[in-house]
Design goal:
Radius of gyration: 21 Å
Bound molecules: aspartic acid
Number of helices: 23
Largest sheet: none
Shape: globular
Structural class: mainly alpha
Length: about 450
């Protein structure tokens, strides 16, 4: 049987196992499509309430989970040689996956010319709505790249913690965890405390998952119902290019990476994380999905040592789906404004997309904010941006749902490869039965 068939069958089996979430997702699409927001405003108030409530409740566990997972991950790895080995492998594989993503996205966008002739489609009312927003984003990005890196250094880790600013939190936690490990036996009580926090947050995640079906239903219905199905036709080439690139990344690059760098069967891995994939689709947030990504990977045999180190870092830094969207969106804009796409400009866009995507937070819409970094980098003016952004905004949520699937799947792919390389993967669990959660 061909690899793609195996992947699709595994996904279908995964969907069957999580049928209730899948039904929520399908019902969400049907309700959003048949009962648009404009005709049923009261219904959408309820849907927004339920959907946002679900995201909030799931995000509630993210900070304690990320911090405890990184501390446990680093202390489990132990000596600094191993840590360097794990860390450099992680960066290498995340690097390869993101470079593949931007290369595919550039090629597809160049072949399909999504932006040519799109200018007439601009909607004036949307332009006005987002004008202020874009001006702020540009102002922020204009500070230049160095500032963006500077902001990643946590002057006050508690302030970063309180504002949910993930990159400084991760940087501080990583340094702190390395120090704890180096300090030796005296750190044991504190590490045990983080182990308890981790166990408790995973338990809370299990409970939250009882709400997954209504949550995913409400989020999907709100997304579909608010933009209306006919919006698709307006920027169809942009959407087509995006979906083609995402599909190549999902069905070709991930299985290929798994085949070249490990013995992990792609179908089994995709099936194992199908629950996380559906929640990623519903929430459009890799951070909110993180607890579930970890649960799925651990239940199906990837060791806690690897999961707790690779997945939290990946959920923040590895955003290949976002990089795909950003590359295609910027090429769309340059074509729309008739800017000549020289090979050098394409490389610059791709390079900036790698940086911009990895500085995006794992929350809905983050990728569209950091896209301003790329546009600034290639010298587009705010006026040009306003028109372009208005187009990109129309379908943002729906594009976001798909790129978030890629973002979390590639984290799991890298975790599986590293687990395979380091003998940290239980193949019996991955390929066979699932372990029951301990009570
Ligand atoms: N929503 C994406 C994520 O959480 C980030 C983005 O906006 O691209 O992974």
């Amino acid at each position: 049987m061909g690899l793609h068939m195996q992947v699709i069958i595994a996904l279908l089996l995964g969907l069957k196992r999580n049928g209730h979430i899948f039904i929520g997702l399908l019902l969400g699409i049907i309700v959003g499509w048949q009962m648009p927001q404009a005709d049923f405003p009261q219904l959408y108030k309820v849907l927004h309430f339920v959907g946002e409530g679900f995201i909030n409740i799931i995000q509630m566990v993210v900070l304690p989970l990320v911090i405890s997972a990184i501390v446990i991950g680093i202390s489990n790895i132990g000596d600094s040689k191993q840590l360097t080995k794990f860390g450099s492998k992680m960066l290498l594989y995340y690097g390869i996956i993101t470079i593949a993503a931007v290369s595919i996205a550039s090629a597809v966008a160049i072949l399909l010319h999504p932006g040519v002739g799109a200018k007439e489609l601009v909607n004036q009312s949307i332009i006005q709505n987002i004008q202020g927003y874009v001006a702020n984003a540009i102002e922020y990005q204009r500070e230049n790249l160095a500032n963006i890196f500077m902001n990643m250094i946590p002057k006050n880790p508690f302030a970063s913690l309180a504002s949910g600013n993930m990159i400084p939190v991760i940087l501080f936690t990583t340094i702190f965890a390395i120090a704890l490990t180096k300090a030796g036996e005296i750190s044991r009580p504190l590490i045990s405390l983080f182990e308890s926090i981790f166990a408790a947050t995973m338990k809370v995640t299990d409970w939250i998952m009882y709400l997954a079906a209504p949550g995913v239903f409400a989020l999907t219905a709100s997304a579909v119902g608010s933009f209306g199905i006919d919006v698709f036709s307006n920027i169809s080439k942009y959407i087509l290019a995006f979906y083609i690139a995402i599909a190549i990344q999902f069905f070709v690059v991930y299985p290929l990476m798994l085949k070249v760098f490990s013995k992990v069967p792609a179908g089994k891995l995709f099936g194992a994380i199908s629950e996380a994939i559906m929640v990623a689709f519903g929430t459009a947030s890799s951070s909110a999905t993180l607890p579930l990504t970890i649960t799925c990977c651990e239940k199906r045999g990837i060791s806690n040592r690897v999961c707790s180190f690779v997945l939290p870092l990946g959920a923040t830094l590895n955003m290949d789906g976002t990089a795909i969207m950003q590359t295609i969106a910027v090429i769309f804009l340059t074509q729309m404004y008739g800017i000549e796409l020289t090979p050098l400009l394409i490389v610059e866009i791709a390079f900036l997309a790698i940086i911009a995507s990895s500085t995006s937070a794992g929350i809905p819409g983050a990728g569209l904010i950091t896209i301003a970094l790329i546009l600034n980098g290639i010298g587009l003016t705010p006026e040009q941006l306003v028109i372009g952004f208005s187009l990109l905004f129309t379908l943002e949520r729906f594009i976001d749902m798909f790129r978030t699937i890629c973002n979390i799947t590639s984290d799991a792919v890298v975790a599986a490869i590293i687990a395979d390389n380091e003998n940290e993967l239980d193949y019996e669990l991955l390929c066979g039965k699932q372990v029951e959660q301990k009570a």
